[in-house]
Specification:
The complex is a heterodimer of chains A (756) and B (159). Chain A is of the alpha+beta class and 756 residues long. Chain A is built from 18 helices and 29 strands. Chain A folds into 3 domains: 148 residues, Aldehyde oxidase/xanthine dehydrogenase, molybdopterin binding domain (Aldehyde Oxidoreductase, domain 4, 2-Layer Sandwich), CATH 3.30.365; 182 residues, Aldehyde oxidase/xanthine dehydrogenase, a/b hammerhead (Aldehyde Oxidoreductase, domain 3), CATH 3.90.1170; 316 residues, Aldehyde oxidase/xanthine dehydrogenase, molybdopterin binding domain (Aldehyde Oxidoreductase, domain 4, 2-Layer Sandwich), CATH 3.30.365.10. Chain A starts with 17 loop residues before the first helix and ends with a helix. The N and C termini of chain B lie close together (8 Å). In chain B, α2 crosses α5. The chains are: A alpha+beta (756), B alpha+beta (159).
């Protein structure tokens, strides 16, 4: 077979926004400013749960520099939310977490706005606090949302009281299978609350012109913000323009509306542009973090070491608003099942309200929680049975032709290849000789969010290309990846392409920078646009060359037919003057993944779309006395389908692993009795350069069915397997099994003392 | 490597230009740079000197501009990310950051570049360990640091 070296895709080209990012020229949401702009600050509830008796803003309004104070009374609508409409812009009658916005001040400067906050007098009547999921699930539990029944909600959800969604995944007869199993194992796990940790705080600038609203914010989903803002302010969506300056990191934390509505409320009342930017303390206390989970798993195996049944329960602590938690309780069941052939499943999930800050859709929502439990248990069971954890996995993993837990097609399945490559790279077969040293391995699978992407592509008379895409560049370089597809297909250089993106007024609809979808979905839309450009350009080129249009193809900056060619610029110039220009739209709509509905209940995410497969392995040393862990080498074998730009894929893998090492080893926002105990970057420690071990990336390329050239979703998977991989290695090295994240030295040292 | 120029006049210099900080003495330097001089390349991340996004060079030394005041800069030469490239020519570090995937979202990049600039001014041939140690005060959530360290190594080799 001849393999053609491709000119653009598959190459390590610099990203298209690189120059503006190293010179400081690029403008982020946090940098954005308008003339005459005022600055907002948010008054937040000091109580985890309380009734608001009265708000008196008179003194604040008289303070220096203050233009306005806004409260729930200034918001025309009641509540909003993606799955359950349980979120208010400002608390109206009840505050449901410490940090719940109650009012906002707009002033000449940020300092003046902050100075006026304590002058707003709010009378509260404190209410009993639902601090934990156990309390929330109790029969006599106080309700976080007393009016939950009256809230509008997605019809698939199964709701009751403090449970925003009760999900079930049922296959076969798990009870009967356990009864007939050779051995049955049960384990419990807990995961922690991690902040996405983007370096740019959430920020937005809003401006009104009569009843037309423009918002500039570093959001991942401008079209969702457009419709949400329209609903909040009861105006037509067409009256709302959301434009996205550069995004300073997001990881899902800027997926849902954050401060845009507050800026809009201030601007509306003050009749001038308003900016809201959160402080670090506000970010840590109220960011859209990864939901903590309590998980119980039961696994039954037969004498051949095949899994015959798995049962489990996952409690997802959503905080005071359900947010993405109802989805985490859905996809989480697929993660708990794992990439294994299991004939009988009975797994359920509960998305639970508590009086804590709302959580969100942090990178691979449900992945790390579910995989930590699934893959820790695989290791624990293998060791109890006295078999190699790798062998135990290889005996049970899915392979080409197998079906997923809900009956879905699995695409090109590469778990085995990933496991074997990761194992080989970490030296799995070689004996460990040093005391305190050990290895761990884990595997998993993940979804790529589908929906639609659309682009307009225009070839200018000078042969250069302008692309309008509704998708924002989240930071990963995925838009560069999509443009590599365009450059390859159209025969231009990456430097020839300018992207205008993520502005609801000027770019076509896109489902957003989320779910590992951008490079594939926008790339597919670009490929479609090239087909449409060909339909316009080839007849013109054919006429110039005296050939037929069907003999034409795109060459390097030219349209070619046999040994003749005509410059792309000439065709574009000719079309511009005579026929409306060389401009085309491109669309891609991801087909849904069919599944067996009878196996699911409440699952708003019932399938793993265009699955990617991956395996991680680590070699580490645990200090015998202190329990300190030193990671010697970390290996990721990830099936990316086709590596559009290996440099940025490695960047996703390295960055994801380090972020997940943070979750696994130390990052945890600690809530006690409804309050955050560690609201700064010293007490909430994120990895810095000295914490980052060597990460080896092995890019497996088994072409998938969806992405361009077979590309699969890349961005989220790297954070999924580290918790289990590290936990398994810590056990191998120290004999201590830690089942609650983070795996701190204290837990390891204590475990050793207690003889765990 | 960019030359550090001295300010002829003014309270202090920013990227070689004299600036008047009258009335802004008590403000954090980062706000003076961003809000008064409109040099928004310097970022505000944490605002507490913990993340390094606001790093600038003060007389060649990397410093968090969110925890020093504009008034304390009198007589100093301040350099921000906007001052690195001269006549549109990028520095070796800027070029190597671009080549090595050392930036993703790019929000930490200005601070990273300023810290790395000081490192290479002081130590033109740092070891990998020295780079990692020196860059430990700048938080990046995207890259996992490896490509940043590689970019600095490459700039040192070819700079």
């Amino acid at each position: 077979m001849t393999v053609h070296k491709r000119r653009i895709v598959g190459n390590r080209l610099p990203r298209i926004d690189a120059t503006s990012k190293v010179t400081g020229a690029i403008v982020y949401g946090a940098d954005y400013a308008r003339n005459g702009m005022i600055h907002g600050a948010i008054l937040r509830s000091p109580h985890p749960h309380a009734r608001i008796r009265n708000i008196d803003a008179r003194e604040a309004l008289a303070a220096p520099g203050v233009f306005c104070v806004v409260t729930a009374a200034d918001i025309p609508s009641e509540r909003f939310g993606s799955f359950v409409k349980d979120i208010d812009v400002f608390a109206k009658e009840v505050v449901r977490y410490k940090g719940h916005p109650v009012a906002a001040v707009g002033a000449r400067t940020r300092e003046e706005a902050e100075a006026a906050l304590p002058l707003i007098r709010v009378e509260y009547e404190e209410l009993p606090v639902v601090a934990t999921v156990e309390e929330a699930m109790a029969d006599d539990a106080r309700l976080v949302h007393e009016e939950w029944e009256s809230y509008e909600a997605n019809a698939t959800l199964v709701r009751r009281g403090n449970i925003a969604n009760h999900t079930r995944l049922t296959v076969g007869d798990a009870d009967a299978a356990f009864a007939g199993a050779w051995r049955v194992f049960e384990h419990s796990f807990r995961t922690n609350l991690q902040h996405p940790g983007y370096t740019e705080p959430r920020a937005a600038v809003a401006e009104w012109d009569q009843d037309r609203l423009t918002v500039w914010s570093s959001t991942q989903t401008p079209f969702e913000q457009q419709s949400t803002l329209a609903a909040i302010f009861r105006i037509p969506a067409s009256n709302v323009r959301v434009s996205v300056p550069a995004i300073g990191g997001a990881f899902g934390g800027k997926l849902r509306i954050g401060v845009e509505h507050v800026a809009a409320a201030l601007a509306r009342k003050a009749r001038r542009p308003a900016k809201v930017m959160l402080t670090l303390e506000e970010e840590i206390a109220t960011g859209y973090c990864r939901q903590p989970a309590h998980i119980r798993l039961k696994l039954g195996v037969d004498r051949d070491l095949r899994i015959v049944a798995k049962a489990g329960r996952m409690l997802v602590d959503c905080g005071a608003m359900s947010g993405s938690g109802v989805g985490v309780a859905s996809s989480g069941l697929l993660m708990l099942a794992g990439p294994y052939v299991i004939p009988n499943l009975a797994i359920e999930g509960f998305a639970v309200y508590t009086n804590k800050a709302p959580t969100g859709s942090f990178r691979a929502p449900s992945g790390p929680q579910g995989n930590f439990a699934c893959e820790s248990q695989m290791d624990m069971v293998a060791r109890e049975l006295g078999v190699d954890p790798l062998e135990f996995r290889l005996k049970n993993i899915v392979r080409d032709g197998d079906k997923g837990p809900t009956g879905q097609e699995m695409g090109t399945v590469s778990v085995e290849e990933c496991l074997l490559k990761a194992a080989e790279a970490i030296g799995w077969d070689k004996p460990v000789v040093e005391p305190g040293r050990g290895r761990g391995i884990a595997c998993g699978w993940w979804t790529m969010t589908g929906q639609s992407s659309n682009v307009f592509v225009k070839v200018n008379p000078d042969g250069r290309v302008v692309v309008n895409s509704g998708c924002a560049e989240i930071g990963s370089g995925a838009i560069t990846g999509a443009m590599q597809v365009l450059a390859e297909e159209l025969g231009v250089d990456l430097e020839d392409i300018t992207v205008v993106n993520a502005d609801t007024a000027s770019t076509p609809f896109d489902f957003g920078a989320q779910g590992s979808r951008t490079a594939s979905m926008v790339g597919n839309a670009c490929a479609d646009a090239v087909r449409n450009l060909a339909a316009k350009a080839f007849p013109v080129a054919a006429q110039i060359m005296g050939v037929t249009a069907d003999s034409c193809s795109f060459g390097y900056k030219a349209i070619v037919s046999g040994n003749q060619s005509v410059p792309l610029a000439q065709v574009a110039a000719s079309l511009q003057s005579g026929a409306g220009g060389l401009i085309a739209e491109g669309s891609y709509i991801q087909p849904g993944t069919p599944f067996d509905k009878d196996r699911t209940s409440g699952m708003v995410i019932p399938v793993v779309n265009s699955p990617s497969y991956h395996a991680h392995a680590v070699d580490l040393t645990v200090d015998e006395e202190t329990g300190e862990v030193t990671i010697n080498k970390y290996v990721v074998a990830q099936d990316v389908g086709f590596a559009i730009n290996p440099t940025y894929i490695e960047g996703q893998i390295e960055g994801g692993v380090i972020q997940a090492i943070g979750q696994t080893m130390y990052e945890e926002i600690v809530w006690e009795n409804g309050e955050v105990r560690n609201g700064n970057l010293t007490d909430y420690k994120m990895p810095t350069a000295e914490d980052a071990p060597e990460v080896v990336s092995i890019l497996v390329e088994r072409a998938g069915l969806t992405g361009p050239y077979g590309a699969k979703g890349v961005g989220e998977p790297p954070v999924i397997e580290p918790p289990a991989t590290l936990a398994n290695a810590v056990h191998d090295a120290s004999g201590v099994r830690v089942t609650d994240l983070p795996i701190t030295p204290e837990k390891i040292a204590l475990g050793r003392v207690r003889g765990n | 490597m960019p030359e550090l120029e001295s300010a002829p006049d003014g309270d202090f210099s920013v990227n070689g230009n004299p600036v008047d900080a009258t009335g802004h003495d008590g403000r954090p330097l980062v706000e003076f740079l961003r809000d008064v001089l409109n040099l928004t390349g310097t970022k505000i991340g944490c605002g507490n000197g913990e993340c390094g996004a606001c790093t600038v060079l003060v007389d060649g030394a990397a410093m968090c501009s969110c925890i020093v005041t504009a008034g304390s800069m009198r007589g100093s030469d301040v350099m921000t990310v906007e001052g690195l490239a001269s006549d549109g020519r990028l520095t070796a570090l800027q070029e190597s950051f671009m080549r090595n995937g050392a930036l993703q979202c790019g929000f930490c990049t200005p601070g990273m570049l300023m810290s790395a600039t000081e490192l290479l001014l002081r130590n033109p041939n740092p070891t990998r360990q020295e780079i990692v140690h020196f860059m430990n005060g700048n938080v990046c959530r995207c890259t996992g640091y490896a490509q940043i360290v590689e970019a600095i190594e490459e700039a040192a080799r070819h700079g």
